[in-house]
Amino acid sequence: MKAMVKEVDSHQDNEHWELKKRSSIPAGKKVLPAVWAMKRKRRIATREIYKWKARLNIHGGKQTKGVDYWETYSPMVTWNAIRMFMTLAM
User: Fold this and answer.
1) Contacts of 38 by beta carbon, 8 Å cutoff, 6+ apart
2) Predicted TM-score (pTM) of this structure
3) Which residues in the chain belong to E strands, given as ranges?
4) C-alpha pair distances (Å), 84 with each of 14, 28, 43, 53, 76
5) Which of 1, 54, 63, 67 has the most crowded Cβ, counting Cβ within 10 A?
6) pLDDT (tens digit, 0 to 9) for every residue of the chain, 90 residues total?
């Protein structure tokens, strides 16, 4: 439960979203479904669980371009950019 609270707080602190009550959503707008993905971290020697990590995954495939979103962003790097940074680093 602590991991879930930490994940939600992190998104709010970084202003990724603003939580709203379902009753405040205008008619005709849809709320995207979400799923929690939980992962446990174990110590190698003893195999005891020492930490839980949580990630909230939104089903973005249910969105319609031009209605629910207008642009996408995916960070990508090209080999030319990597070579340039390596050259500058030397």
Assistant:
1) 3, 52, 53, 54
2) 0.53
3) 34-42, 49-58
4) 31, 48, 39, 36, 15
5) 54
6) 888 888 888 888 888 877 788 888 888 877 888 888 999 889 989 989 888 899 888 877 777 777 777 776 666 778 888 888 889 887
Q: Which of 36, 78, 76, 29 is nearest to 53 (CA)?
A: 36
- Distance, in Å, from the CA atom of 24 to the CA atom of 30, rounded to the nearest integer, reads 12
Which two structure tokens, joined as six digits, stand for 85?
Answer: 């940074």
User: How many residues can be counted in the chain?
Assistant: 90
Task: For residues 72 and 61, give the distance between their C-alpha atoms in angstroms, rounded to a whole number.
Answer: 13
Please name the amino acid found at residue 12. Q
